[in-house]
Amino acid sequence: MATYKIDPDHSDVMFKVKHLMISTVTGIFKKFDATLEVNEQDLSDAKVTFEADVDSVDTKNEQRDTHLKSDDFFNAEQYPKLTFKSTSIKNSGDNEFILTGDFTIRDVTKSIDLKVEYNGSTKDPWGQERMGFEVSGKINRKEYGLKWSAVTEAGGLVVADDVKLAMNVEMVKQA
Predict the structure, then answer these.
(1) With a threshold of 0.85, does the pTM exceed it?
(2) Mean pLDDT for each consecutive 10-residue tract of the chain (175 residues)?
(3) How does DSSP classify residue 143?
(4) Which residues partner with 137 through β-bridges?
(5) N or C: which end of the chain has fewer CB within 10 A?
(6) DSSP category for residue 76
(7) What's phi and psi for 62, nearest 5 deg?
(8) Where are the alpha helices (DSSP H) in the chain?
(9) Which residues pair with 171 in a beta bridge?
């Protein structure tokens, strides 16, 4: 099997969540790691593992980031990583796949499906083989124990339950 590691300088791990139900807040994880193991050119046997350092969450607001690291949300002190481990991959046509796996936040693991767009492979100027992907999905944060909630005077949620996941990923083949 060929092993690929994520290139953090050419990859992004993001999430988006509605705020006050009228706008969207985007957050990123600055520290993450991923491995792809694959034999087949068509990616039919791909195995993916991923982890992000919860303490590296960044929403461009220090007060909000501190709150996200607290027990109301991620509880970074007790659960420093969020992880994903694939269990299957299915080709859905036109270089698109459904990647299914176990996603863990805090102490809760649930199976999720991620949409994967394969953008192709190439050799970089230094002779390294690279593969590019765009990954998207959605989770309900409350199912993972990210329980904080507040309601506005008008009855709307301050933070939505659904969280969109979006990753732009470049993987580098290891020697």
Answers:
(1) yes
(2) 97 93 92 95 93 98 95 96 98 95 97 98 95 97 87 67 96 96
(3) G
(4) 165
(5) C
(6) T
(7) -60, -40
(8) 62-69
(9) 6, 131
Beta bridge partners of 34: 50
Both tokens assigned to 99: 């990647």
CA-based nearest residue to 107, from 83, 134, 140, 136: 83
The tokens for 126 are 């230094």
For residue 121, how far is the Cα from the chain centroid?
21
3-state secondary structure of 55: helix
Tokens 């936040």 sit at which residue? 105
Query: Which two tokens mark 18?
Result: 């509605």
Q: Please choose, from the candidates 2, 1, 12, the residue with its C-alpha nearest in 3D space to the C-alpha of residue 133.
A: 12
How far apart are the C-alpha atoms of 98 and 90, rounded to whole Å? 5
Q: How many residues does the chain have?
A: 175
Q: For residue 90, give both structure tokens.
A: 């299915």
Quote the DSSP letter at residue 54: G
